[in-house]
Amino acid sequence: MRRRLAAAIAAGLAMALAAALAQGVPAEKEAFIIMRELSNAFLVPAVLIGGAGLLSLCGAQGAFDMLGFSASKFLALFRINGSGLTAGPDYCQYKKARERKRRALWHLAAAGAVFFALSLIFLFLYYLLD
């Protein structure tokens, strides 16, 4: 878990650095503008990494089971063997099989929360300096 969290934070720091460089933070002279741009830069990995983590938490609780089952049944209509909707498990069997495979990506949600907190800190500093 710690390695995964460290990897997610490292990826988020790389995203934040890229966003900060794209916004021209090294060329800025005024502190409040730097704080504003850093707040924006840390919000990018918070949304991307944290959003992926929250989606995985929702998926681990079974929020997307019906969507996956219906997509697999829809694609079964176009199979060449002609079995159509009668092939494969019913929804109850599909749901039980999915429950065995589920795992939530808590480290992504935690890393997103860290970057969101950093973004809020820089936003607070921006309003203090403005």
The rounded distance between the terminal residues' Cα atoms is: 39 Å
Strand content: under 5%
Nearest-integer average pLDDT: 89
- Portion in helices: over 70%
Number of helices in the DSSP assignment? 5
- Overall geometry: elongated
| Unreliable stretches covering 5 or more consecutive residues | none
Topology order in helix (H) and strand (E) letters: HHHHH
The structural class is mainly alpha
Q: What is the C-alpha radius of gyration, as a whole number of Å?
A: 22 Å
Give the total of beta strands: 0
Overall domain count: 2
Main sheet characteristics: none
Account of the 3D structure:
This protein folds into 2 domains: 1-62 and 104-130; 63-101. It has 130 residues and is mainly α. It is built from 5 helices and no strands. It has helices spanning 2-22, 31-60, 65-76, 91-101, 106-129. Helix 2 (31-60) packs antiparallel against helix 5 (106-129).
